[in-house]
Amino acid sequence: MSTIRSTLDPATPEYQQAAEAMTAKLTEVEAEFAKAIAGGGPDKVARHRKRGKMTARERIELLIDEDSPFLELCPLAAWGSDFHVGASTIAGIGVVEGVECMIVAPDPTVKGGTSNPWTLRKTLRINDIVRENRLPVISLVESGGADLPTQKEVFVPGGALFRDLTQASAAGIPTIALVFGNSTAGGAYIPGMSDHVVMIKERSKVFLGGPPLVKMATGEESDDESLGGAEMHARTSGLADYFAQDEQDAIRVGRAIVKRLNWRKQGPAPRAEVIDPLYDSEELLGIVPTDLKIPFDPREVIARIVDGSDFDEFKPLYGSSLVTGWAELHGYPIGILANARGVLFSEESQKATQFIQLANQTNTPLLFLHNTTGYMVGKEYEQGGIIKHGAMMINAVSNSKVPHISVLMGASYGAGHYGMCGRAFNPRFVFAWPSAKSAVMGGAQLAGVISIVSRAAAEARGQAFDEQADAGIRAMVEAQIEAESLPMFMSGRIYDDGVIDPRDTRTVLGMCLSAIHNAPIKGADRFGVFRM
Prior knowledge:
This protein is an alpha/beta fold. It has helices spanning 13-37, 42-50, 56-63, 117-133, 151-170, 189-192, 211-218, 224-228, 230-237, 247-259, 299-302, 346-361, 379-383, 386-399, 414-419, 443-460, 467-484, 487-492, 505-516; strands spanning 70-72, 89-96, 99-106, 137-143, 175-184, 196-200, 205-207, 242-244, 312-314, 322-329, 332-339, 342-344, 366-375, 404-413, 429-432, 437-439. Strands 1, 2, 3, 4, 5, 6, 7 and 8 form an eight-stranded mixed β-sheet that branches. Strands 9, 10, 11, 12, 13, 14, 15 and 16 form an eight-stranded mixed β-sheet that branches. The protein contains 19 helices and 16 strands. Helix 4 (117-133) runs parallel beside helix 5 (151-170), helix 12 packs parallel to helix 14 and helix 16 (443-460) runs antiparallel to helix 17. Helix content is 41%, strand content 18%.
């Protein structure tokens, strides 16, 4: 039988403790996400509404199909920085007239929707997702352009935003701009470079330089409407393709544009009949132990996310620290690699390499479920070829061409993070559970390594080793690494696309797989040289 038989017992104290810890971490994440939802705060939102405008989130809600989900991406961008959580912009995948689109909306209640360095990083990540998955783009434009105090970090690399927009169009990816307010200076090029542009009567303002700048540059007297108003662009300049009467009308027109795109997915369609998992997704809350040194069986996770809990395991008796196998998720075929006991040995590396090659041979996307402390170290393992075998796995991941998705459930340390397709290896999407941790190694291990090196250096110089100072340094380093390995820290730096509730994993992965299939699914024709 290929159906997973779960042995999870939610009544055990261990499960209850893990579920309580996960719930507490989810509460912390939700509190930070609430800051992004709140925008610039009650006063700024009230002032925005007083002008007769919808918030950016209300515009998105009206734009997407009724009762359809919106997968927000990088919602914690800029967390832990001097900038607003969410990086002053909202971005995510929503269904419009049955078409999955990437929707990007600056939040005008946060510093006028201006772009700071984290806005730029977030938008560049969103553009990667657009390009790789061939997602039509809808920009809900209302922004004051660059955040001027930080322009030195925004101006030069910010040109890539315009490059990406025009290259998307050249690749046949539709780009649509709905202009709800100001789109000035560099921001004027968003409608200027989009395939379809909708402007709103007496609302949209698009110009390279506003009246004050024009006055300073040329001495010419002008007003907003004659310089860059919607009616002028609809009647005179031709920049506006559609002239909407109000915000609701602009959204109606935007939906009509998508409806007429004649959009077709290039990847294979999913199975028509989808069977739900046999086990309750609520039970995902208590699977990851509070202490990540304690292993857990990833099959318990797989059983709660794949169709029918049906999983054909590949090489189950070989390299058992890594679970590999085939399944379907929301009707889409998928290959899964999941860490079982943390450490990756030579056997696991060779098994993963073969499995990745097979997935590429059958054009099957891959899902990586992380809980690894890295590749095994020690004299026996070095002599056994762990470097070349680990490199073999990383080679396979690097050169695999089928789409990859990574979910960090527990630990994701060292080169194991790379072998399991971390951010640097260009997975189509990366998500983390609140229980995840990611760093070059665990805090205690890293602090211990620094201590050993310092002790050896002191002995080599013939100096006494200061044990008290060493203890203080170890505690400080361990605390620093612990803080920097937490998911909100990593998500704030856009090292993942969001921290998700474990119970939502199946839904999130289903939306990602559906989005991925907008583009062709084609495996690699060749790999690099494998050291045997």
